[in-house]
Design goal:
single chain; 6-stranded mixed beta sheet; 18 strands; globular
């Protein structure tokens, strides 16, 4: 284990199955591998329990948080390995008609320290016929979540949240030194935007960014981008995966957060401002944005 000033973070890159049981077996094996390599904090990707797009099959196999066997197994595993285990997300039953995409930060005693429901739903049509309607099956969350680790505060997000920078600034302004983005980016959008967006969120906030990803061609024929990343607060890539499942680690020095923020103190310089629509007249307030 690391000393109390630094720690080792591990990104577990998966190719989740259609069903929870083989996904749990894969995740457990890779988490054990990460712990054996000295990881203190381990993050898995979005939908670590199943990559299921078929609505009927999804609702046949998901359980409530209280009954979910994957969550119970991962809590026991965290306690056994004495690590902070962050399950990027699990698909869970919310109601008879809706699921939730929920992230769990689990402490080394097996206790759930924090959970977060994905706020932004991936409803999109891509060139080539790819189409996703996450909101058809999932209930969006409404609350940003921050929690404490022994090394600093951590902000929880999931995948498509990455495209909404105000969320990350709010987490950083609330004290987050680390931001998490467990994901299942498509290959097309990942190739175009993954590295740029993650590095931008790190630079904008002066935070470390942890992004464990799904990777490769799944059983349902969806192709995810992989390239799990650990990004430092200056925007530098500290660890990167490829397109196969695996474990990717980096040593994290939280002091670098303060260094980056002293060099570019943009979190202190945010101002409230107005956007005026000139066509509506000089006194017409069209939009108000900004931070205190």
């Amino acid at each position: 284990m690391s000393d109390n000033k630094t720690f080792t973070a591990a990104m577990v890159q998966m190719r989740t199955s259609l069903l929870p049981e083989p996904s749990l077996e894969q995740g457990t094996r890779l988490i054990r591998q990460a712990a054996a390599q000295g990881a203190d904090y381990v993050l898995t990707p979005e939908v670590s329990n199943m990559m299921q797009l078929n609505r009927k099959a999804l609702f046949e196999h998901i359980a409530t948080e209280e009954d979910d066997l994957s969550l119970k197994a991962y809590r026991a595993l965290a306690a056994e390995l004495k690590i902070h285990l962050h399950i990027g997300s699990l698909a869970l039953r919310f109601s008879p008609e809706k699921a939730v995409n929920r992230s769990f930060l689990i402490g080394p005693e097996g206790n759930v320290l924090a959970s977060y429901d994905k706020i932004h739903m991936f409803d999109i049509d891509l060139e080539g016929g790819e189409s996703y309607r996450e909101s058809a099956n999932y209930q969006p969350g409404e609350t940003a979540v921050i929690s404490d680790l022994p090394w600093g505060r951590i902000g929880l997000t999931i995948c498509y949240d990455l495209r909404f920078p105000a969320l990350y600034r709010a987490l950083a302004e609330s004290g987050a030194a680390f931001l998490t983005v467990p994901s299942a980016f498509t290959r097309k959008t990942g190739e175009a935007h993954w590295h740029t967006l993650l590095r931008a969120r790190a630079i904008e906030t002066g935070c470390f960014v942890f992004a464990a990803a799904q990777a490769g061609l799944h059983e349902n024929k969806r192709e995810t981008y992989g390239h799990s990343l650990i990004v430092g607060p200056w925007g530098e890539v500290l660890a990167e995966g490829g397109v196969e499942p695996g474990v990717f680690l980096a040593k994290i020095d939280p002091a670098k957060v303060e260094t980056a923020r002293k060099s570019v103190p943009s979190l202190q310089h945010g101002r409230r401002f107005s956007v005026v629509d000139p066509k509506a007249g000089p006194d017409h307030l069209h939009l108000v944005r900004g931070s205190a």
